[in-house]
Amino acid sequence: MTGALAKPTTAELVHEAEQFLYLEAALLDDWRLDDWFALMHPEVIYRVPAPGSDHLDPRHTLQVIHDDHLRLGGRVTRLKSKHAHAESPHSRTRRLVSNVRAEQDGPHVVVHANFHVMRTRLGQLDHFLGAYRYVLARDGDGFLVRERVATLDHGIVEAGGTVSIIL
Amino acid sequence: MTELLEPATTATATAGMVDDRPDDGCFRVDRAALVDDAVFAEEQRTIFDKCWLYVGHVSEVGDPGDFRARTVAGRPLVLWRGSDGEVRVFLNACRHRGAQLCRVPQGNARGMSCFYHAWTYASDGRLTGLPDADGYGPAFDRSRFGLNAPPRVEVYRGFVFCCFDPDAVGLPEYLGQAREYLDLVADQSPEMEVVEGVHEYSMEANWKLFVENSLDGYHLIPLHRTYFDYLKSTEDSYLDPRKPTEARDLGNGHAVITVEGPWARPVARWTPAMGEENREYVEARRAELESRFDAERAQRIATTDRNLLVFPNLVVNDIMGVVVRTITPTSAGRTVIAQWTLATKGEPESVRARRLDSYVTFQGPGGLATPDDMEACESCQQGFATAAESPWSDISRGIHKEAAGGPFTAADEIQQRAFWRRWRDMVGAG
Question: How far from B362 is each of B60, B223, B228, B374, B414, CA to CA, in Å?
Fold first, then answer.
């Protein structure tokens, strides 16, 4: 049993977290990137660790993606541009998010979930498998994302070669 | 009948593929060189089995017993620092039946035991134990069953190379003029280290396309517009087309381009993007360089950006950070790239953070630029389906300056011709 289960959680909290993750996945699948980015807290960190070194301190370890609000905003701006050639034309994605666990941690909600992001583009189908870790901050009736870590179970070489989408 | 079954001689697979006529202003490469399986096989034999190839950096195995599993030219290898402190490279195959001895990417071990029959080797490669040794006759001499190594292993300024050709020239001679540029990286600080974590990514395209791309100053603005737009909007910095650039053929297939980019260099070009809190440190690094080297050399180390190719497939980009990249073909149409970043050992956490930020913004499989490089190479590969009707890729920029010996800019293609001319000479494609 993980220590996570000992922390306070309720069916309602899990439901809230699930609905938030589903909303986020839908916005990304629909390429509503501005609406998605509006869910990011000004102090957001979005991170994809380099496969094989995800257990190491990100301050001292090369990451595949390590965005603060500024760079994530830049990423969104880039992806909307037709000059983001790796995503022009856009990939189509289908995100399955499951096994959601949520717990209250002081003012924040920490969420763990599994993901299976399928991407298809130009006749190719790639699968990204892994786990999410979120830190969510309350924002009125909803949440803002403080931290969003997508940890892959496999190398990027096995998933189409690059991570040009937002995982 | 037998002659009908003979394969075409490999010597003809590449004949005439590089059309090099400087006097006519012509340099072009047959696109078959980038799609043909026979060419791929020929390259393995004449280039990857003959050249010095990068294995890793000594800092990746900093302590006695540290090891890293690597694959070089299709061979599984172990880079292993012995209990005696010496860095060695072994073939990762048990001498008994060949099972891979090391089956994890990295770790620390005084010895390794094969999981199949438990033959055990010390970190200097000696066979130190095997179960039921009495089952072997008197002729069995365990001292002859140590781990095998690539025929040649040498280290230059911390960069570990191996070569599968026992008759190859030594590494310093092979590197030739490229040594100076590795020195400019190695001299950045008294000790350089590879940061933990590797970027491994891939493309459905021929490896030589990414070698070309890694030395290509001509593509920066058109292909990476979104990256430079990002720098402009966030840091108000931009690639100034008026700043002089340079490209050089370094001989032996090695080449370099030099630019002065808009980004910060932790060694040692401070820009506001690095933050006021890091200014003093970066300026002190600059002063430290000036105390160790003459002004011109200190300035080259501190403020100029370089992309170096060590033939055939090692790229060292000394730009917003130091990128050490290997470009490895797995077939004519597929390439795996591994890259690490090299940094000043012991630099403050805030500088390390800015270095890594700046690096991942541009570089790697999730950067704002590299995925577009992959897309461009893959798009070329797809375009090569027309090779029968449209066989030639043009690589002639700046060729009219060759008679006078240059000078060349980073947007010329002398650096790519340097690679292709060496490629031609090695595979016999003249």
Answer: 23, 13, 10, 13, 25
